[in-house]
Amino acid sequence: MIALLFTLALNIHAKGFVGIDGKNLIAPDGTTFLIKGTNLGNWLNPEGYMFSFKTTSSARQINEMFCELVGPDATADFWKAFKDNYITEDDIRFIKQTGSNTIRLPFNYRLFTDEDYMGLSASQDGMERLESVVNWCRKYGLYLILDMHDAPGGQTGDNIDDSYGYPWIFESEISQQRFCSIWKEIAAHFKDEPVVLGYELMNEPIPNYMPNKVQLGAKLEPLYKKVVSVIRQVDKNHIILLGGYEWNGNFSQFTDWKFDDKLMYTCHRYGGEPTANALRAIIDFRDKTGLPMYMGETGHNSYEWMGRMRETLESNGIGWTYWPYKKMEESCFVGVTPPEDWQTIVGFAEAPRTTFAEIQKARPDQAKSRAILNKYIEACKFMNGVVQKKYLECLGLSAQQ
Questions:
Q1: Which alpha helices (DSSP H) does 155-279 contain, by range?
Q2: Full set of structural domains in the chain with CATH
Q3: Rounded CA gap, 205 and 343, in Å?
Q4: Residue closest to 263 by CA, chosen among 298, 227, 312, 234
Q5: Would the pTM count as exceeding 0.90?
Q6: Tens digit of each residue's pLDDT (9 = 90 or more) over 177-187
Q7: Residue 312 and residue 301: Cα distance in Å, rounded?
Q8: Of 89, 73, 196, 90, residue with least CA distance to 132
Q9: Out of 1, 326, 342, 393, which residue is the most buried by the measure of CB atoms under 10 Å away?
Q10: What is the mean pLDDT of the chain?
Q11: How confident is the model at residue 158 (pLDDT cuts 50, 70, 90)?
């Protein structure tokens, strides 16, 4: 019997994929693997606060604001330059040098459609962008988690999923079909790629303030089963990551924990005490299911808090990717220094723009605005970023380049 189990374990990892053994992830060499790394947030799913915007908070709002500021053609040029420069091979090389072993890559579903998104309205470049990171991760020895941060119809109804104020995916069969179709396309493309650790189906579904959160939460596991069955038509190799409702924090409505043989669960936690007691519900769910648990997002706190959270997670066998890798200023691996006169852009982003008259009144000089946006592209390049040494040190990582 022992010999049979050993043979099965070897077969699981024969192709070099990360596997699951009870509550642990197992590397291809058979050792226990604990995720440690970061999130490439803002690159393929722009968020306002990472540009120092407040009310202009989601990708479509940012795009609309830029179009009002400098016009749609200049905005399309900006987004291409942004995608070409915000994350490059230099960034992936640096992440590896810190001692990280995994990257979580958030992306918007629109990158796999012909919807208007980040300067393109046809022939979106989502697969090419994901492929570029896969190639860099393979070169430098990192694993990659593909995270659909913005699902069709929206899974949260807030700025983080770039939606329209409600998690419509749980009410719309059309959105669910699109959700399944995109994941099937991605899985078919990467089915034989061991650098990809797994597919995270959706980010932070159903906020805790939604009045009907319990009713919506009951629809989460059935939707997960639906998309997993579609993925398994083309890919039986990769782990699939499932988050609970209430911002990846509540797992109480999951009952069929092992409906697939390569499942793990993912949680998020910002704030609160960074202790095992504060994470008790998450740890207990992990122990009850006997499957791995992973903290996909945490951070944005004091260095002491983030260090204690990291220690708590590791002592309880929970891997982590802190959020985010790069943004304006601090609380990240690499800070982007705002270009001179960036407040000109921020001022327009925060100004009243509900009528054409308000847009025209608030708009600063267009040539000046284009020049500032071009300076931002230079500022966001890795070579011009500011490595946050204390941030990395509190995560037990190295800031040496």
A1: 173-190, 213-217, 220-231, 245-248
A2: 31-150+324-401 (no CATH), 162-295 (3.20.20.80)
A3: 33
A4: 227
A5: yes
A6: 999 999 999 99
A7: 15
A8: 89
A9: 326
A10: 95
A11: very high
